[in-house]
Amino acid sequence: MSTPFEEDKPIYIQIREKIEDQIINNQLNEGDQAPSTNQLVNFYKINHVTVSKGVNQLVEEGILYKKRGIGMFVAEGAREKLVQKRKESFIEDYLIKLVQEADKLGITENEIICYIKKLRGSGK
Asked: pLDDT tens across 55-68, in order?
């Protein structure tokens, strides 16, 4: 049976990232109710503690907030926080290594920009 989760990353992180993606993609907006822990447990057929760990991290970071007895909601400014965090991770995880490797290979900034434009389909 196939699972919607990657094997090399903890499931609670993947649950967290799925919620983050919904916020970044405007599927969940500020003030919207996020899926409940029980809904996520039932949908993904995974342990309640695993789901809670991912959701609680989002609460601790101010991305979600709890309304006692009602559920979890997307906090004000959550999307901006997530986009900024993902940009910083992108730079650390990809761009620094890209520039270092390009320097080793003698690839210029202009060449990198041309490659990016080609990949995006705007070879201008």
From this structure: 999 999 999 999 99
